[in-house]
Specification:
18 strands; 557 residues; globular
């Protein structure tokens, strides 16, 4: 690779469970002026794909390797007995991969992160063990955004951990801790500490707007009344706006949705007010993280680093349909006994609310389904890139991109080679490809052509995309465990299964699935979940948890 005269800095920003059309540059009504400015300075991409769950996406993002090879073949604690601890299914990044931080750090970069890790809690698995020189990290998947780390656990012990430069600081969070502002301030602190003669790789991984939906009191009413007309109205307005922005074709109509959830017109007035309140808080969380991004950008400008920094912004998967009781065998009624989810307390400490499935579908407008599925709304997310060497501008709709592409792209810009071996281990093959030539407009070659395929699988939801075509397999409760075929050019919302009309294309795509699944070592789930067969001691040891007198909510992302 050709090294640039000056190696660029990298700021990689990941948000948690933000829907496809939530931010302004992708058609949303939520005020995100800093993301809008970033999109104006660079490019936004329409066909960027991730995994359907948090940890697998992060594993691919940081390693460039498919999740079935890097250790996150399934996200803990969702292993079945036949998958548990098999190669590629270890539940944390394994020794067969190298992270961006490890490779850039060894090449002379200063590396730091603030925010969500979710790639291993035990010794040897944490961010400082995988190349980050300065760290403030939440090691789990979801937790209160305030200092009460018990908010997802009804036990007397917090089920999660915060780590600062190798120290457990779970019990040392300041009283005024709020995740977004604290991660922002920590990132600025780490950037201030950067040696002047080194470029940096900074990983800012917000947990917002992942549930539980929380904001400081002064933000609670910023969107009061905005969502009183419900999710159908929001989908209509966003679809119209996306058409006017050129994000979708004029012929793309409002997605009718899955019909899995209660219709707005069937809700009582009381339920409508509660549903609208949840979305108000979600929107405020999203605006707050945009403000944090703006604060980091302003610091980089003051420090004279902004013009030398490539900034990449993305969500880790589609919007989240899970209700609070999803995270445990605890019933919805018991959730309401444990947490104060009155409308007056929604968004405050001691509450645990989520937007739920109907809002999640609306947040993913115009795409189908949501997080946990390999439908477009689960795995297609917003992507914005700007900075030195990024000459592309506007909406880019003709490239098929994947989260594993980020590592080879950043290494390419830095002029750093990825070795074949590291620490005595043969590194697993990269699944991703560099975007540098495309972003610099130095090549007319697409990142992927019509014959290149992308494979996906998580918790038995599967997909392959190749050219205009996609096959999709959704396990219950989201589907009926059968393969569907869609032409995404004609049907980007996956509304019409054309498998019976194109048997040859279906066979071709199934062959691509078989090739992908064999190459990455996919293990089909069978039997009971492994956790059901663990002793309590094994469970708590495996996931770094502390047993309590009541059942804890699993740390799902």
């Amino acid at each position: 690779m050709e090294t640039q005269a000056k190696q660029p800095n990298f700021l990689l920003i990941v948000v948690d469970d933000m829907g496809y059309s939530d931010c302004e540059p992708f058609g949303g009504e939520i005020r995100t002026p800093n993301l809008a400015k970033l999109a104006e300075e660079g490019a936004r991409f329409r066909h960027f794909y991730t995994s359907s769950l948090c940890a697998p996406t992060r594993s691919m993002l940081l390693t460039g390797v498919d999740n079935h090879l890097n250790g996150l073949g399934v996200m803990p604690p969702m292993h079945t007995m036949n998958q548990f601890m098999k190669p590629g299914y270890e539940g944390a990044l394994n020794a067969n991969v190298a992270t961006i931080a490890e490779l850039l750090g060894e090449a002379g970069y200063y590396t730091c992160m603030a925010g969500k890790w979710h790639l291993g809690k035990n010794d040897g698995q944490r961010p400082e063990d995988r190349g980050f020189q300065r760290v403030f990290s939440f090691l789990g998947g979801g937790v209160s955004h305030f200092s009460d780390a018990r908010a997802l656990s009804p036990s007397e012990h917090p089920h999660t951990l915060y780590d600062e430069d190798g120290r457990d600081v779970t019990n040392d969070l300041p009283a005024d801790f709020y995740s977004t502002t604290f991660y922002t301030d920590k990132m600025i602190e780490f950037l201030r500490d950067k040696p002047r003669d080194k470029p940096f790789f900074a990983y800012l991984a917000y947990t917002a707007p992942h549930d539980p939906l929380h904001v400081p009191d002064e933000w609670l009413d910023r969107y009061k009344g905005t969502y009183d007309d419900g999710y159908p109205a929001m989908k209509e307005v966003r679809t119209r706006r996306m058409r006017s922005m050129g994000l979708i074709r004029q012929g793309v109509d409002v997605n009718p949705g899955t019909d899995h959830f209660e219709r707005w017109e069937d809700l009582s007035e009381e339920k409508r007010r509660s549903q609208a309140r949840k979305m108000e808080i979600f929107a405020a969380m999203t605006e707050m993280l945009d403000a944090g991004i703006g604060k980091v950008a302003e610091y980089l400008k003051e420090a004279g680093e902004y013009d030398d920094t490539i900034i990449l912004f993305m969500s880790d998967n589609g919007a989240n349909p899970k209700e609070p009781h999803f995270y445990s065998n605890i019933s919805a009624a018991e959730i309401d006994e444990i947490f104060d989810n009155s409308r007056e307390n929604m968004g405050r400490a001691g509450s645990f609310i989520s937007i739920g499935g109907a809002w999640a579908e609306a947040c993913n407008t115009p795409l189908s389904h949501f997080k946990m599925t390999t439908a477009e709304g689960g795995v297609q997310v917003p992507l914005i890139i700007a900075g030195p060497g990024v000459r592309r501008r506007g909406v880019v709709a003709d490239q098929l991109l994947h989260t594993t592409d980020v590592l080879p792209t950043l290494l390419d810009y830095a002029g750093v080679e990825r070795p074949e071996q590291r620490n005595g281990h043969q590194l697993a093959p990269l699944y991703g490809r560099s975007w540098r030539a495309f972003l610099e407009e130095s090549s007319r070659q697409p990142v992927r052509g019509s014959y290149d395929a992308l494979g996906f699988e998580m918790i038995e939801c599967k997909a392959v995309i190749k050219g205009d075509w996609k096959i999709l397999f959704l396990a219950p409760p989201y589907g009926e465990s059968e393969w569907h075929l869609y032409n995404l050019q004609d049907d980007p919302q996956e509304l019409t299964n054309v498998a019976s009309e194109h048997p040859a294309k279906l066979a071709e795509m199934l062959a691509e699935w078989n090739a992908y699944s064999n190459a990455v070592g996919y293990i089909e789930a069978s039997g009971d979940k492994a956790l059901a067969h663990m002793s309590p001691e094994e469970f708590f040891s495996r996931y770094g948890l502390q047993p309590g007198p009541k059942p804890s909510l699993p740390d799902n992302g």
